[in-house]
Amino acid sequence: MKRILLMACILAVLMLTACAPTPAATLETYDDMIVVGFSQVGAESDWRNANTRSMQEALSEQNGYRLIIDDAQQKQERQITAIRNFIHQGVDYIVLAPTTEKGWDTVLAEAKAAKVPVIIVDRMIEVEDDSLFTCWIGSDFRKEGDEAVGWLAQHFGEKPLRIVHLQGNLGSSAQLGRTQGLDAGLAQHPAWELVYRDTGDFTQAKGQELVEALLTQGIQFDVIYSENDNMAYGAIDALKNAGLQPGEDVTIISFDASHRALEMVMAGEISFDVECNPLHGPRVQAIIEKLEAGGKPPKLTYVEESTFDAATITREIMDGRGY
Ligand code: GYE
């Protein structure tokens, strides 16, 4: 009986401890750390996941940061809510990887009023007043589009080309710049014909779905211009399932140049891949350090990027890449 009572007591104590409310992690707990709220677009692609990892690695507790990441699942409304939450929580910095370019004026004015600096990474924003953000770091997406078109022109010249265009999220800088590049190419090369254009939301599943639908409808094409690697993976699966050989029957142009895609460049399935570098973590860290030291980072910084095709890719290049 005594033993049963003892057991019951131990159990009761254990249950009470388990139910006791744990003190909510308040930001005061991190007084000695720099608190950063990062509003991330989502997890739609390999590029995006590499970007999230890079931020986590650079803005780590070891480096003196407390990083709060909010995944917006590709929805701007969610990003606006996340930014408001960050302001409310009293973070030291907000990092925003914006879904689309437009629609940030109000929420960024709120951040400014609360004196929270906002660093924009990756895609750009279009705001009335540039003082609503501290600085931006990312890629020149129009230049990326021009690179892709340059390769097509160099390889096909004025031969007739039927082009399928898989676009990224409409209204995002990555989509806008890469689309502008192609539009300029179409205007310059009358023999090129755009046979299909739609958004695949930068996802593999959507890329596959769109190309499957084209094949089912019997639409003929020579080139797929895919605005990111994941949509290209989906397109490649669709082609292979239909008995077509990517790289031979259809030329595939892609963007990001993530590791998996470069393997496909090596295998000849993707013909040309324009690099888009996602490793913004250390760059953001350097910006914050500069600001902390009272410095002024440049308003806009474009990252250096390169391009790959079968002639330029090597195993050494692939092994040395961080994404
Ligand atoms: O190309 C794509 C991702 O904004 C550069 O977003 C980024 C793009 C990237 O989903 O894979």
Describe the structure.
The structure is a single chain. This protein has 2 domains: 32-139 and 278-292, Response regulator (Rossmann fold); 141-276 and 309-319, Rossmann fold, CATH 3.40.50.2300. The chain is 43% helix and 19% strand. Helix 2 (46-58) runs parallel beside helix 10, helix 5 (141-156) packs parallel to helix 6 and helix 7 runs parallel beside helix 8. It starts with a helix and ends with a helix. The strands form 2 sheets. Strands 2-1-3-4-5-11 form a 6-stranded parallel β-sheet, sandwiched between helices. The protein has a 6-stranded mixed β-sheet with strand order 7-6-8-9-10-12, with helices on both faces. The protein contains 11 helices and 12 strands. The longest helix is centred in the first third of the chain and has 18 residues, at 2-19. Mean pLDDT is 93; it is low at 13-24. It has helices at residues 2-19, 46-58, 76-89, 105-113, 141-156, 173-188, 204-217, 229-241, 259-266, 281-292, 315-319; strands spanning 34-40, 65-71, 93-96, 118-122, 135-138, 161-167, 192-199, 223-226, 251-256, 272-275, 300-302, 307-309. It has 323 residues and is of the alpha/beta class. It binds beta-D-fucofuranose. Beta-D-fucofuranose binds next to helix 2 and strand 9.
